[in-house]
Amino acid sequence: MGARLAAAVHLDHPVTHERITLQPGDEPEPKVAALITHPDAWEPGGALGEQEQGESTGTADEEPAADA
Fold this sequence. Notes:
Elements: E1 9-12, E2 19-22, H1 30-33, H2 48-57
Antiparallel strand pairs: 1-2
Region (Disordered): 41-68
């Protein structure tokens, strides 16, 4: 299950260059979702960038690795 939109979004499709409108509840394909950068466009915890960032950065409680 992909990320779901919380608001309507208007944009140009990255491949066809057609103007498209996505509705709340839509789960856009990854190429289209990557163009939607405003966090309020996504349902809570649903933005693709937030999911990827949370997986790759770890938590704030971790200490940085010591240089050897």
